[in-house]
Write a structure and sequence with these properties.
2 helices; mainly beta; 380 residues; 9% helix
Length: 380
Amino acid sequence: MKGTDTWGFRLGEAECQVDPKSKQGGSWRIQDTNKLYPSPDPGNKYSGYRRYHAWVTESVSGFGLTSFFSNIGTAYFVSGENVPDASKFSVTVPHTVNGSLPADSVVVFKGEVSPVYTAWSSGGLGMTDSRMAVSMKQNAASGWTSLLTTPANTFQRDAAVGAVPSVTDPTSGLTLNLTKTAASTWSWSLNIPADKFTGYNGDDETQTYTFQVEMVNPMNLRSGPASIERKIDMTPTTLTIDRHDVFQVAGRAYKYVDGDRKIPETKGTMVHVTWPDNTGTDVAVGDQGIWQAVPPEGMKQGDVAVQVLSDDAEGPDAQGRFLGGNQSASVSQMLEFRPSTSSLPLTGGWPLSVLRILLLIALGLVGFVACLRNKQESRR
């Protein structure tokens, strides 16, 4: 170094190697590890740059003769993107009301992002901002579906905190809603139409999806992915009433029905039974989707209705997987007052004791009549 005030910081030395492609000499290379610059130093980051120059020192004569400066080359540094924070992700799933999804239902995927690179709205630095790429995958399938990639200059450093921009992906048609919450932090939400979640066949794996976010720096290099897995259950329970009399109301519950193919509802699912007097009873689905309830004593005649209710739309189970919160369609039948087979003669139950008494009385009468006949015959 001959003059640190004009020559800059010494990066190092590299030996020229013979270059067969060059008629005038050799070629050289050196790596800038960004560890030798004194403090304070902006570092190799966006908006930071280095200006490099070189000269040759000959080593044959022993005098160390040097050349003039080379041309000056300017390098702008672009570092890798940070992996998004998956702990800030959330997924909200719509659920059926009386057996049907409300119109225009969407699955809402939310999060927060702090891109390393942000752009000036005027484009002053000549480089674009980071992009955010969102995709999802049905776990039973193998491929990822791209949902949205933000266009250039979405994340602007001179946008005011509280600004609420939005961007639309021309391919998917989905719109990302943004809110700038700090100098370089944005919260975002993406509405995904319910009809994009297809392929459910009764297997829980076909209802489980992984949502993924990646950041892409201006050199088109992606960060590591951050993801969240959720069960997207938007299929209501199907109920049947197979018996409906004063002694028992019973039927079956199915979580998936496709023609003749019926998959029983998960054991423990609660079925709400509404009696003709508007009182209710909750019963749990048992094995093979069977549910049953006993009408309260003295229940009047009228319609009895059954339905799966779901006030807890997003409750996790013991494994941390989210359960569905779908409401089934209500199914009703007239509560019948047909006699129980147990009350018919010779079928057992409480009438059997009465029948025995009547038989004893009849036998007594037969014996009495027989005695009278014996007396009459003896008189003759």
